[in-house]
User: Fold this.
Amino acid sequence: TGLSNNLTGTNYVQASPSGSFTISHLTPSSVNPINAGQEVNISFEVHGASGTSLSFLVDGSIAFKDGNCDKQLPVKLDSLPNCNSCDYCNDSTKSKIKTEASNVNVSAAGNINVAQQFNISPKNITKITAELVFFNEEAADTSCLQCNPATQNNAWHFIPLNTASWNSGTLLTGSPDNNAAMFPSKKIMWFCNQQGTLNLNMVIALPQSIKGKKCPRRGKICIRYSFTDANCKTCEKLVWYSYHSN
Assistant:
């Protein structure tokens, strides 16, 4: 039966969630009827898009005269050009976060020490979080690594002391980001208002062996870093680390 009359373009495009945009140069605004075998080309421009995604839609219906229900209304979309600037975190004029050098070791106390450097511009960062999202340790010789129940609640969590420093400046102490506001915590955070070279130093507790046992260990962890800037936009980096001790 054709395309419905549509001067605003809202049937053609949606922005979500709670997004917005304006349409210009929409043509045609309606086509009724669409004849058998007819192709309709719809063109428009999208301006001022706000939202995490844009969906391009065409609404239509088919009136059947011969009782057959196997009719099709194919819809074809032109390929859109690569548009990294549509993604705030991939637009280097808005957010540029470079993952730099890192170092991971297992301390004498049996914890993982993670040192990670980032270089961030061009907006000041107001909040940083680090969240342990994956961990796996290879099976150890049980005759050596015997779990210490007194420390098991700390295992695979951040424990003090976790610090951040910008451009080799003052050390900022990380806080637990959880409902209890206490360590141990899967997530930690720092508040600031800077950009440039960022150095993070974090401590993650491993399952502890009974006192007096020193065992070789090997495993892998993943930390998700998030950076909220002065525009209240948050970008993330996932970084994987391997660790081992003798």
User: Anything to note?
Assistant: The longest strand covers residues 111-137. Residues 1-10, 59-73 have pLDDT under 50 and may be disordered. Residues 150 and 202 are 22 Å apart (CA to CA). The radius of gyration is 27 Å.
